[in-house]
């Protein structure tokens, strides 16, 4: 049975490889994608890396295996290219928590503040932002801004983490959050620490504040990779989306990467939306060029400005 499944999967992969070459397409995948998608992608990265590579590519078609805001960002940075999203239902609950109306209301209440939006926002919210940041560069970018008051959208936990690093600035935090990261509790990590007392704990700043406080290392997905694969500890407890395990084991298979699991033996930090993309859906959009990201020209121009500010700083 396994051989049949593998044969079918290989047929899909062969189809993808044929179509991307024929159509001069590039496949970009986030670290939280299924392992089999990471394996066939031209580029695997976090939000910042993928944003940069989307801007640099000379492909005619970009297939973005991630959630919707990521595919939108690729389109904003590449307005003349065709950007395809394998599954339109793969959205981001945290990004959907932020609204243009709400951001404009905060701007009205705090006219001296700069709106800093996490890249995990939809295109319309980017249009009313002054600068975009990622979890990797947020501290660096915000520290360099002249503004002393920051409206941070939409992740309250990343925002509060950044605020603790830059106490000289005032932060007004949107009350959004990433449900999978929020659900990771300190108790889950401490239970693993009891089992692996020599382990280091690395978590993403989207985790709730109490979870972040007990970590040995806090950083973006790519920073967690750097820490987990190079630190002296043999065992590393990872507090972020379980899809990262696939990449970590490829980069440094000699270490033991421990992810909290729930009763269903699924990663506690498990993004169902990220997993909605499949090899079959990638093959389908490449073949039929469906699910294209279409954004009005004015949205593209307005959303690109804060992205350009970020890219000019980093």
UniProtKB/TrEMBL annotation:
InterPro entries: NadA, NadA_sf, Quinolinate_synth_type2. [4Fe-4S] cluster binds at residues 92, 178, 271. GO terms for biological process: 'de novo' NAD+ biosynthetic process from L-aspartate. Iminosuccinate binds at residues 30, 47, 118-120, 135, 204-206, 221. Binds 1 [4Fe-4S] cluster per subunit. Catalyzes the condensation of iminoaspartate with dihydroxyacetone phosphate to form quinolinate. Belongs to the quinolinate synthase family. Type 2 subfamily. This is Quinolinate synthase. The lineage of its organism: Bacteria, Pseudomonadati, Aquificota, Aquificia, Aquificales.
